[in-house]
Amino acid sequence: MATNDLVQARQRIFKAAIGCFQQYGLRRTTMDDVAAAAGVSRKTVYNYFTNKTGLVAEVIFDEARRVNARARRTLDLDLPGPALIVEPSSPCWPRPPVALHRHPAQPGRLRGPPPR
User: Fold this and answer.
1) What is residue 115's DSSP assignment?
2) pTM, two decimal places
3) Taking Cα atoms as reference points, which of 79, 76, 71, 20 lies closest to residue 45?
4) DSSP string, 46-93
5) Domains in the chain: ranges and CATH
6) Residue 48, Cα to own-chain centre: how many angstroms?
């Protein structure tokens, strides 16, 4: 197999893993799921990724790299640190963060607003 084919196969497996993680979640996704979604054998997946933990770590690292690149493109890094703090726009935050309040029965703990 040519080097370009190897890179394409790895990318196909990687993208299939992301899709499986989104569909089934990190815990429920198996390497068999990833292999089926990529259209390769399970052995082929293990040729590119040592184990599921390594695959998950690479997906997380890739996402962090993309977020960092987007932040560098959009933020004015010459500003002082506090001026760079912005509201998150990630789908991980279904609604804006809420203010925390002291818990009346346990002064050392914080709590958010009452559940809806």
Assistant:
1) P
2) 0.62
3) 20
4) HHH-SSHHHHHHHHHHHHHHHHHHHHHHHS-TTS-GGGG-----STT-
5) 3-84 (1.10.10.60)
6) 20
The answer to whether 84 and 74 have CB atoms below 8 angstroms apart is no
More confident residue, 69 or 91: 69
CA distance 73 to 89: 15
Q: State the Cα–Cα distance between residues 33 and 19, nearest whole angstrom.
A: 10
Which helix H or strand E contains 42, and what residues bound it? helix 42-48
- At position 35, the amino acid (one-letter code) is A
Angle, helices 31-38/52-74, rounded to nearest 10 degrees = 70
Burial tier of 45 (Cβ tally within 10 Å: 0-12, 13-18, 19+): buried
How does pLDDT run across 15-63, given as a tens digit for each residue? 999 999 999 999 999 999 999 999 999 999 999 999 999 999 999 999 9
**Looking at the DSSP assignment, which residues form a beta bridge with residue 111?**
101
